[in-house]
Amino acid sequence: MSSTRYRAGLAVLAAASLAFGISYFRAIGSKCSAQPAKRFERTVEAMDTFVTVSVSGVDEAAAAETMDAAFAEVERLEALLSRFEPDSDISMLNFASPGEAVKVSPATLAVLCEAARVSDLSDGAFDVTVGPLVALWREAGKSGALPADEDIDAAREKVSFKDVSLDAESNTVTSAREGLVVDLSAVAKGFVAERAAVVLIRRGITSGFVDAGGDVMFIGSNADGRPWRTGIEDPLKPGTVADTLYVRNRAVVTSGNYRRFCTIDGKRYSHIIDPRTGRPSQGPAGVTVIAPGGAAADAWATALSVLGKDGADAARRAGVEFLMYFVEDGEINRFESEGFAAFRKDGTNDQR
Ligand code: AMP
Ligand code: MG
After folding, report:
1. What CATH number should be reported for the domain holding residue 273?
2. 11 Cβ contact list (under 8 Å, min separation 6)
């Protein structure tokens, strides 16, 4: 598999979801108030997708300066976390020998700690070393033939985030096993959205959002003081909205099997792999997670795509709210966490 092909594939898919997300925010924003506060927005290609930063409540010069700072943070984090940049922290880790302690930046350690937490709580359903299985199934999708059981077993041998240890005192990461490859695709976009939002908040922004390819971190309320209103795409009718959510100061992230899949012998296979079986997840068609932070929301949307309804307890322990869509007999059946209903109401909840 060439990394260039992989990057191109991701960009196309992410662009499709971005187009939906942003046009929806815009449509709603213009409806909410007769005189909405001015909103400034900029979109840049980064992280194999498009990243949009939006701020309001400041003048044009201040908006430009804060957006510059947020995009500088996106660039900085991408340089640390990309597996395609030879000098990134993640490449250093992937090229290191087993047992070698690799010094990483605090941000890299933070995202790996979040990945470890979600791996533990999800009992290994979330595992950022799943790359060999992802590659095997991607090749299967291209060739149209299911992988052999022994190839699946061989790839599974190379998947084990438990064998990666993190030391927060020395800021080092050590892999105990030969051939482990860390790929943060399932958590990095949410993490970067969160960190870029923190940069905006530190510069005094109280209303805005950072959207990293559909993984959105909302700051405060929208320009009218109402909760941000955002739609979840209908897996049966992509481009239309199945549910509308109202959030303040929250990350909203969706993982969907319905947009990214491969077809072998007429059967659809998800791009999300269950590391425990080595096979694509058979779980929900879509999972939306709402959490205080983007990294957790992103990681849990992927983890719950593997765990399905069985993940409800783990999600509760992790403090995240979720909505799952199951497509059965041509209909959407919903399954959601107890606290999710609060985000369906406009303005009455007191999310801080
Ligand atoms: P997301 O879109 O955030 O759900 O991330 C999906 C991507 O994460 C996939 O395209 C794979 O590169 C990777 N991935 C697939 N399965 C898993 C898993 N079980 N745990 C962690 N990452 C995964
Ligand atoms: Mg994810």
Report:
1. 3.10.520.10
2. 45, 48, 49
